[in-house]
Amino acid sequence: MNKNILLIAATLLAVGISPLAVHAAKSSEANASESSAAGRDPAHLNLVEARRKVNELPEVLSAQQQSKIDRSLVTKAAADYKQARTRASASEASYRKLFDENLQKLDPEAAATQLKERQAFRERMEKARANKPANSNKKVAQHDDEEDEEEPESSQG
User: Fold this and answer.
1) In angstroms, how far is CA 66 from the centroid of its own chain?
2) In this structure, what DSSP letter does residue 18 have?
3) Distance (Å, whole) CA 75 – CA 81
4) What DSSP line would sit under 91-121, residue for residue?
5) Residue ranges covered by each domain of the chain
6) What pLDDT shows up at residue 30?
7) When comparing pLDDT for 17 and 119, which is higher?
8) What is the pLDDT of residues 101-127, one digit of tens each?
9) Measuring CA to CA, which residue among 123, 125, 103, 106 is closest to residue 114?
10) Number of H helices, E strands in the chain
11) Nearest partner of 12 among 24, 25, 3, 21, judged by Cα
12) pTM as predicted
């Protein structure tokens, strides 16, 4: 059966008739006849027809194509960002590993001190996370421009 469908599709493509276009034409004709037969609201049918005509206008088609292009660029940028972020994380991990290895070789005592400090930091962060309310929202502190301008002056004098 699949061979027959593929053979029919290949024949239609060779002739220049797209099976999808044929199906779309049949389904749109069927939908139009069903909607009129179902006694749809004439105002709605008028709206559908007006939308179709507006979508066929050159400036609307151009705007639609531009929006599709922009959307694909956003998708590409998001993928590029994700890839760059992954690459940056791998680079940072490689740096940390090499740094720790060479610090251990150069000064084992400093490496031990660093491990202790890291462990203490992790414990403080775990305590802070545990003490933080579960449903607290992040609030951004608002600064006045006047206060920001006054601070450099008071720190200089």
Assistant:
1) 18
2) -
3) 10
4) HHHHHHHHHHHHHHHH-HHHHHHHHHHHHHH
5) 1-45
6) 54
7) 119
8) 999 999 999 999 999 999 999 999 999
9) 103
10) 6, 0
11) 21
12) 0.43
